[in-house]
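[recover] target loaded
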């Protein structure tokens, strides 16, 4: 019964009562917050009347009351230093006026002269001023006294104003207007750590996005819950069989949105093509990030990948069959870099001849359109399509040490116009490893955890100022990263994301993906293949066929060999019945302290040198230098200076071309030279 009565009373309270008692209760409830100032006025009047009865004729009381009034006013001013300037001044004026009136009333009497008039007019005025302040504080649109304003006061931005916040799932965005002439966007950026402390959140959860058109306006973004703590395994390709022009999804942001980027440009979206830098310290998850990006690339139908991995494909082994060209570092990487350089002008010329200003998905199709034809009569040319090319340099610090810090500068500056994206992965992209020109030509970056001192090498200053701090993670949160790339909303730049985790369960799926790419992925177009073969010779073979097809080919070759001569090709012209040759001019007699053997004549030495170049070419060693001829010189009693001179002569004859590395030469395949 009691519970029922309680429920009925609660219902009447919600609906409101129409009797006199209900109206009185409602008015009292609404009036309670406004009563303290009026109680203070009444208390002051009572204190003045009682004080006059006791201290009317006391000179000492006058001195004491005056000192107490001054001390109380000063204390109020000091205590209110942590509040806003308006509240501090209002409080001090109220206390000073009240204590002065009480002092005068105690000494002269509350009804003497104008003292009673001041009480009747000033008391209600002060009380009403506090009532107005209470009403304004409860107005959600009022600025200066809300909880958000109080937060800004704590961090030294008391004069800033916060507009209406936009609340999204796990994301709050609030516009901020700073005090004109006194505060700038840099002040907010410097206060982000204190704001995070006041909200009891990690530093990476608070960001500031300045307005590009104003130095004092921007948006404060707060992500209260870190959705990246849970490790999520790689779910497989996001768009198998799609185009490389579609977004590549490599993880998710801290608010659950997909973490994605684009490689080719899009004229319709006004997005430029890009190169990518993957940077992160040891244990930061750089390997998983690379796998996320590479699996997305290989799952697309109109792209080929050339990849250099000095780690002998430790992470990428299951995906290697899907690559169009994979090398393990050293001289082979030198050749791959030179091949990319040679492919740039060839691909750019093809795009220009077919009326493309940049690579688009239509470039990968057979050119059956009259809008994109290389024929002078305007008819469709039917040329084979040109897929997008990704040149991937894994553990690039190794390659940069071998080839020089500007090994990729030319590629980074010129390849985008040729439908080529350069991906460079290394731990520390500092300027003593990579030239400033190369770094400036890599518009996109995936910045994982690093040493705090290395943040500036990975991310632009404005992104760091907005709240991005990969140095706060180090190697404690593998896969956490910031992504800066064309096509991504700039407000996302300081938002942390996390890539998918690759485990042993992902290996069979990666192997299936590589097999799918072998059978369904794009192959190198004739222009790109010819440019690569013109540099690499037999070292470039293109993507291999699946195992079944390889086995058939091998069997055919074995059948052909079975019916041939069981001798080495170089010995096929030797007559086994012929007499051995006698001594030849130049044969050295064995003398004490001298080497013995045959020293070739100048003409024979040049012939041997040409044969050596042909042998290097047959072995796929397309970049050579004097050190590569060390054993050859010992066998033929020739010196390294003689070899250096022959290398220069071969370059003049067109058999060699210089590379970026001093003393290293690229062999021009014999057919190309001819």
């Amino acid at each position: 019964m009691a519970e029922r009565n309680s429920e009925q009373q609660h219902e009447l309270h919600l609906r409101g009562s129409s009797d006199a008692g209900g109206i009185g209760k409602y008015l009292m409830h609404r009036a309670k917050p406004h009563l303290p100032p009026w109680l203070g006025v009444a208390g002051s009047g009572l204190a003045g009347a009682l004080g006059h009865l006791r201290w009317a004729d006391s000179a000492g009381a006058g001195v004491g009351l005056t000192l107490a009034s001054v001390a109380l006013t000063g204390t109020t001013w000091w205590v209110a230093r942590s509040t806003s300037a308006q509240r501090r001044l209002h409080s001090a004026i109220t206390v000073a006026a009240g204590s002065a009136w009480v002092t005068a009333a105690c000494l002269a009497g509350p009804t003497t002269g104008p003292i009673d008039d001041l009480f009747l007019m000033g008391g209600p005025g002060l009380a009403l001023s506090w009532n107005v302040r209470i009403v304004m504080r409860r107005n959600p649109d009022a600025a200066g006294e809300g909880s958000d304003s109080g937060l800004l006061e704590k961090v030294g931005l008391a004069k800033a104003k916060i507009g209406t916040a936009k609340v999204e799932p796990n994301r709050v965005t609030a516009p901020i207007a700073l005090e004109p002439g006194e505060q700038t966007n840099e002040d907010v950026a410097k206060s982000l750590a204190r704001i995070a402390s006041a909200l009891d959140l990690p530093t990476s959860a608070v960001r500031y996005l300045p307005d590009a058109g104003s130095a004092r306006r921007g948006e404060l973004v707060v992500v209260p819950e870190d959705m990246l703590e849970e490790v999520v395994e790689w779910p497989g390709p996001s768009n198998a069989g799609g185009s490389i022009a579609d977004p590549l999804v490599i993880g998710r942001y801290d608010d659950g949105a997909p973490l994605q980027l684009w490689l080719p440009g899009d004229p319709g979206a006004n997005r430029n093509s890009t190169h990518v830098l993957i940077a992160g310290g040891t244990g930061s998850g750089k390997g998983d990030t690379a796998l996320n990006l590479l699996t997305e690339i290989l799952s697309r139908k109109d792209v080929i990948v050339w990849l250099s991995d000095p780690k002998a494909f430790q992470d990428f082994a299951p995906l290697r069959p899907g690559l169009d060209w994979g090398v393990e570092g050293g001289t082979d990487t030198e050749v791959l870099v030179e091949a990319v350089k040679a492919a740039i002008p060839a691909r750019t010329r093809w795009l220009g001849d077919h009326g493309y200003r940049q690579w688009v998905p239509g470039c990968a199709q057979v050119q059956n359109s009259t809008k994109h034809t290389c024929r002078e009569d305007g008819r469709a040319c039917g040329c084979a399509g040109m897929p997008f090319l990704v040149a991937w340099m894994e553990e690039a610090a190794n390659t940069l040490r071998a080839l020089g810090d500007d090994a990729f500068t030319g590629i980074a500056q010129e390849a985008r116009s040729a439908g080529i994206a350069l991906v460079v992965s290394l731990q520390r992209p500092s300027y003593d490893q990579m030239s400033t020109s190369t770094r400036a030509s890599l518009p996109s970056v995936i910045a994982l955890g690093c040493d705090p001192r290395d943040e500036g090498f990975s991310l632009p200053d404005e992104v760091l100022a907005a709240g991005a701090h990969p140095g706060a993670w180090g190697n404690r949160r593998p896969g956490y990263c910031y992504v800066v790339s064309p096509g991504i909303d700039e407000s996302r730049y300081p938002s942390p994301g996390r890539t998918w985790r690759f485990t042993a369960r992902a290996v069979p799926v990666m192997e299936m993906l590589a097999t799918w790419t072998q059978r369904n992925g794009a192959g190198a177009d004739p222009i790109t293949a010819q440019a690569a073969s013109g540099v690499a010779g037999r070292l470039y073979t293109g993507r291999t066929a699946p195992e079944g097809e390889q086995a058939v080919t091998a069997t055919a070759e074995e059948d052909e060999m079975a019916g041939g001569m069981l001798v080495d090709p170089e010995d096929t012209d030797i007559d086994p019945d012929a007499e051995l040759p006698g001594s030849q001019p130049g044969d050295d007699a064995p003398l004490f302290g001298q080497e013995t053997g045959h020293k070739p004549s100048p003409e024979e030495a040049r012939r041997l040198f040409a044969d050596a170049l042909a042998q290097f070419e047959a072995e796929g060693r397309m970049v050579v230098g004097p050190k590569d001829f060390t054993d050859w010189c010992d066998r033929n009693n020739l010196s390294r200076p003689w070899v250096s001179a022959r290398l220069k002569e071969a370059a003049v004859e067109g058999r060699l071309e210089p590379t970026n590395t001093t003393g290293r030469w690229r062999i021009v395949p014999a057919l190309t030279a001819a």
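[recover] notes: Residues 44 and 102 are 6 Å apart (CA to CA).
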